[in-house]
Automatic annotation (TrEMBL):
<feature type="domain" description="HTH LytTR-type">
    <location>
        <begin position="211"/>
        <end position="315"/>
    </location>
</feature>
<feature type="transmembrane region" description="Helical">
    <location>
        <begin position="88"/>
        <end position="111"/>
    </location>
</feature>
<keyword id="KW-0812">Transmembrane</keyword>
<feature type="transmembrane region" description="Helical">
    <location>
        <begin position="60"/>
        <end position="76"/>
    </location>
</feature>
<dbReference type="InterPro" id="IPR046947">
    <property type="entry name" value="LytR-like"/>
</dbReference>
<dbReference type="InterPro" id="IPR007492">
    <property type="entry name" value="LytTR_DNA-bd_dom"/>
</dbReference>
<feature type="transmembrane region" description="Helical">
    <location>
        <begin position="21"/>
        <end position="40"/>
    </location>
</feature>
<keyword id="KW-1133">Transmembrane helix</keyword>
<dbReference type="GO" id="GO:0000156">
    <property type="term" value="F:phosphorelay response regulator activity"/>
</dbReference>
<keyword id="KW-0472">Membrane</keyword>
<dbReference type="GO" id="GO:0003677">
    <property type="term" value="F:DNA binding"/>
</dbReference>
<dbReference type="Pfam" id="PF04397">
    <property type="entry name" value="LytTR"/>
</dbReference>
<protein>
    <submittedName>
        <fullName>LytTR family transcriptional regulator</fullName>
    </submittedName>
</protein>
<dbReference type="InterPro" id="IPR012379">
    <property type="entry name" value="LytTR_MHYE"/>
</dbReference>
Length: 316
């Protein structure tokens, strides 16, 4: 029998990237075909109809540039998402700036592709009244921008729901105190003697030992020492445990501060590893390395963190 924690997300993950690419290609192809047919029907009613190849060039060039911009929009959505809750005005302002850049790149890309198509046909493409034309294009592009970004956001939330989210177990309830220490009788001291009281050492930072993981309607516990490696994913940290992926709402820097530094070491701007789970270190050109983990995965190690990795392995 398979792992009972295996869910739909883990079955979908191996084919996720090819399906995402295929989805956007099919979507933009269908939209381009539909828009071309509608535009051809529209120009036939005008006093000066345009050749079909021109109409097709207009629509195909627009949708091709949109397709190429989808990865950039996904990166923008992922980067700006953490601002939505704490800095709404900054969130909207940055999206406004991003939509303007998106429109400028879209229009410039369309112009380039159309110019090449017209040149191949022995004609010249003129982008007349470019300032007024761009204003018209921006009104359309801002709606396209919002639609694509919203679709990416909704898809990401759906995946988070399938993937499951982890959280640190709740701290003990307030009012629950540790038992008082048993007093030890002190030896008699000479009169006038004032014993020195050593400064109390600072309490060690609280480190979570277990995490509660929710996947759909199931809940189970994982131990911190079972984490193989960690990866920053926007405003989440991905916990990779025995071939399973869980998300914890935190930054990688903040979460590492809660883990045992003798066990977990940062090896990349967006990755950290459990030293006990490293199987092999493969040096790469330029001082970087590739870490082969016991779970069969690989983790990048940048040159900047090689010394910290050596120190951590030496201490372990």
């Amino acid at each position: 029998m398979g792992d009972p924690r295996k869910n739909l997300y883990e079955r979908y993950a191996p084919i996720r990237r090819p399906l995402e690419v295929a989805f956007w290609i099919v979507l933009m192809t269908l939209q381009a075909a539909f828009s071309t047919v509608v535009a051809i029907m529209d120009v036939r009613t005008r006093a000066v109809p345009r050749p079909n190849w021109e109409v097709a060039t207009w629509e195909v060039s627009s949708h091709l540039v949109l397709l190429l911009l989808v990865p950039a929009l996904a990166a923008v959505e992922r980067r700006l998402s953490p601002l939505a809750r704490a800095h709404l005005l900054r969130f909207l302002a940055w999206h406004l700036v991003a939509s303007v850049v998106f429109s400028v790149v879209h229009v410039a890309g369309m112009f380039g592709l159309r110019s090449m198509a017209y040149a191949m046909a022995g004609e010249r493409y003129d982008f007349w009244n470019w300032a007024g034309q761009w204003s018209y294009e921006y009104l359309k592009d801002v709606r396209v921008y919002a639609s694509i970004v919203f679709g990416i956001w909704a898809y990401r939330l759906f995946l988070l729901r399938l993937q499951g989210e982890a959280r640190v177990l709740d701290a003990p309830e307030e009012g629950v105190t540790a038992p008082a220490p048993v007093p030890i009788p002190a030896l008699a001291e000479p009169e006038g003697f004032e014993p020195s009281v050593p400064d109390a050492p600072p309490p060690p930072p609280a480190r979570p030992e277990r995490f509660l993981v929710r996947k759909l309607r199931r809940e189970f516990l994982i131990a911190a020492t079972d984490i193989d490696w960690l990866q920053a994913e926007g405003n989440y940290v991905g916990l990779h445990v025995n071939g399973h992926d869980y998300l914890l709402r935190s930054t990688l820097t903040d979460f590492l501060a809660q883990l045992d530094p003798a066990l977990f070491v940062r090896v990349h701007r967006s990755h950290a590893v459990n030293l006990g789970r490293i199987k092999e270190i493969e040096p790469l050109d330029g001082g970087d390395a590739r870490l082969h983990m016991h779970d069969g995965t690989t983790v990048p190690c940048s040159r900047r963190y090689r010394d910290a990795l050596r120190t951590g392995i030496g201490a372990a």
